[in-house]
């Protein structure tokens, strides 16, 4: 049986089909991983403040700010970035409203 997905091509056996592998791999992953798949390309909603308060994980904070992990933690250490909140034994997150406020303050400084 051959795959007929445009990404794989007609000669790829279904067992090795890229679309099936990715779908089956992420089907059992945490919802956060599935969200990452659906948000690979930036969209208009990233530029507008979110309407509801939620806990942002590091990958979302990196997307919003354009900063990488090391820079975020250096800014937190200097007191120039909102502090992460512990949400589990090894997990941290940021308050979305604090991040939005921090971004708006930076934009206002440049205006």
From TrEMBL:
The keyword Lyase does not apply. InterPro entries: AlpA (IPR010260), Prophage_regulatory_activator (IPR052931). Residues 1-29 form the signal peptide. The keyword Signal applies. Pfam families: Phage_AlpA. Coiled coil: none annotated. Keywords: Signal. It comes from the Bacteria. This is Transcriptional regulator. The lineage of its organism: Bacteria, Pseudomonadati, Pseudomonadota, Gammaproteobacteria, Pseudomonadales.
